[in-house]
Amino acid sequence: MQALLTELASLLGNDDLLTEPADCWPYGCDNSRRQLSPIAVAFAREHAQVAEIVRSCARHGVAITARGRGTGTAGAAVPAPGALCLSFERMNRIIDIIPGDRIAIVQPGVMNGELQSACAAHGLFWPPDPSSAAYCSVGGNLACNAAGPRAIRYGTARENTLGLLAVSGTGDSLRTGCYTSKGVVGYDLTRLVIGSEGTLALITEATLKLCNIPEARHTLRAAFVDFAAAARALTRVMATPLGVSALEFMDRHAVALIKDLPGIDLPARAGALLIVELDGPRSAMQSEVAALRRALTDDGTLEVRVARSDTQREELWAARKALSPALRNIAPDKINEDVVVPVSKMPKLLEILDSLATRHGITMVNFGHAGNGNIHVNLLTDFGRAGERDKARKCLAQVFEAVLLLQGTLSGEHGIGYDKREFLGLEIEPAALALMKKIKQQFDPAGILNPDKLFVPTQSPPASPAN
Amino acid sequence: MQALLTELASLLGNDDLLTEPADCWPYGCDNSRRQLSPIAVAFAREHAQVAEIVRSCARHGVAITARGRGTGTAGAAVPAPGALCLSFERMNRIIDIIPGDRIAIVQPGVMNGELQSACAAHGLFWPPDPSSAAYCSVGGNLACNAAGPRAIRYGTARENTLGLLAVSGTGDSLRTGCYTSKGVVGYDLTRLVIGSEGTLALITEATLKLCNIPEARHTLRAAFVDFAAAARALTRVMATPLGVSALEFMDRHAVALIKDLPGIDLPARAGALLIVELDGPRSAMQSEVAALRRALTDDGTLEVRVARSDTQREELWAARKALSPALRNIAPDKINEDVVVPVSKMPKLLEILDSLATRHGITMVNFGHAGNGNIHVNLLTDFGRAGERDKARKCLAQVFEAVLLLQGTLSGEHGIGYDKREFLGLEIEPAALALMKKIKQQFDPAGILNPDKLFVPTQSPPASPAN
Hints:
2 copies of one chain form a homodimer. Chain A is 33% helix and 21% strand. The first copy, chain A, has helices at residues 2-12, 21-24, 47-60, 112-120, 138-143, 151-154, 189-193, 227-238, 252-258, 285-296, 310-321, 323-330, 346-360, 388-405, 424-427, 430-443, and strands at residues 17-18, 41-43, 64-67, 84-87, 94-98, 103-106, 124-125, 161-168, 173-177, 201-209, 211-212, 216-224, 244-250, 272-280, 301-306, 333-336, 339-340, 363-369, 374-381. In chain A, the strands form 4 sheets. In chain A, strands 12, 13, 14, 15, 16, 17, 18 and 19 form an 8-stranded antiparallel β-sheet that branches. Chain A has a 5-stranded antiparallel β-sheet with strand order 5-6-10-8-9. The radius of gyration of chain A is 23 Å and the shape is globular. Chains A and B meet through strand 9, helix 7, helix 10 and helix 16 of A and strand 9, helix 7, helix 10 and helix 16 of B.
């Protein structure tokens, strides 16, 4: 271990290597609230250093957990036991923005929000917009295939990345994809690495596909008597060619939590909310808003409000934004899931969630990206109370079971990390799972890239009875 | 071999197995004009049969080349030597279209055009629109990651497929991806299989992401004095948030070929064309068309025409559609490439193509998807003349060299197949290429799925000097 640290110090210099436990501590956690300090923290500033760090670690048999800004919620950035944390926060240059080609070339440590500002100067944006955009990195976005509300219209990181430069577990440099918006030369390693949570290769540069900022954007908020009414509206909205760029929902538990907060002006009977954003040409907005209002309205609709200004827009979103702090106030612990079901099956899933909440005596609050069927299921709990952790765990297993029965998936945008690896086998069938593990071995034969994430570690073979 | 055929006959019945050389002959070619008859043609009708066929072939060490409708241009569907042709043309059911979830579940043999008609009944469409849409299959589209003009706005097959059912080279069933428009559970095997030209797994079912048909669509055609003027217009168009759903170009050689044909009404001085389609809300069309007309216009623009009816729309596209027959008339042989460069580098590439054409004494005609920088370079030649084949080959190698120097890619939508496999190493660096081959081995350890495609076959090791 000391030999590795000596190598890293000579490679990076002392300023870019942390070895004191107190310095390493903050690099031991992410938003999953897990904590395990790395043996050291290395800050890379360029591709060649990353390749060198990987080769050093491979020689010394030390694992590497790559880190963007630690905003992930599934534990992917929490160091594996005995791992080095390779932080990309100082490898944070926007290398180029080429408006004529609508691409940006960036290092992985660039913050999402910073990239958006730089692109906006050219009338462009990069679609992935996780709620942590201001303080999460593009590299982390790619490692976890981040999305956000805009995914309904513009897709996730996988649909908005053209190519990568990366370092495999052997320290080899991999150039994947291309600089163009089309390309079919060889296998698609770009999308394979995106969403692989640092287990296949470490991304050191990305060529991102940008979009033109639309001329106009409008926000509407509709309150419904119950989710069934919201779901009917959702179906009608999905069936129109309207330029819907966000389609968020809150269920009755979520609405109840924030309804009486100051500044949140909602009908007393509100039992579900949809917040919808439209974008497109300015000349279309009046008729698009009218058409959207019609699609949102039937006898289960209590009101539809349209923002006429940025201030009003903020007011409409306030309901959604008040939710996270409100959740923190009512329960000390929260399990925040992000399951997905086909949009048409959301009413059924919410019904099942209600009955599971009752059966297990756990409060569940649900909201999320309705246009993708992506539901942030929040189990509110208090792990300090005896038996709570176990109860929540059982309930969660039944949530996942229901999601899969409805042809859904266990994670829409948070990923697997540590938190869901034991459930992976519920969704991925054995043949595909075995292939994924074999692919991992090709990228990382020594198994040093973020080991134990995504997959449950293979148990050591049982001792032979002969011994 | 006879043992395999007996097994296949008992599995499929005699009607779904062709063994007579005359019957097999039509299954030996694709649009690359290569021809090599398969040892037999098996028609699968369901997933289980495909798995069984693969297992039989694996047992007997016989290769399999899967076939949609043989419209590919790179030879991917031309049987490998000694291979069985597994045709999907009778496995052609649309299993389900679910408008509320905007998905279609299809068998691979469904024709692209047939799928579009079925989707249109629900106000939906599947974005990939190769020019062969009426007679190519969705399975072939997926195997080659097909695209077409709409890719500029809606993406290629990879951006519009949610999940697959497939059979690996070991006969294992692989379920990849999901039924939802978001999902990050495990590695992205869906995109890995898409575009792999039948070398990793055989697709037996696909869950496709559909889009709402836009309310309105308008077509404009602009004629320019030269490509430099067209390129300036292209840059201006790309910088607007206009809803451009196709952005096609023809260079001066292409324009010269069709300018004087009956029904093609073009300015005498026309040296380049752009054909642009806009789609979006009806209420926006008037101002969008006006804005597009402005973006298309400077002092190098000769005219901008706007189609006011379907008939006029057909007239504007007539210029583009007359091109393929015109090409056939002037040269017996044609090498049709589909290189891509960043949009901003198209003028430079066209300049280089012109000088290569002069240097090699080969006529080159260029057109394609300008919005993606995807250029169909056509080398017109006559292989009957001595030395022509060699000359074309040398010229082509220099075209590829120029494309890669401009940060382009060798194929935007046609793929590699047989035709470009020897050039793969020019674009894909050794580490990535080695990984691709290792991934192939995991999916297909016996190497029976479309061997010799994509990669140049590994040579036998040289005889040891000791022997």
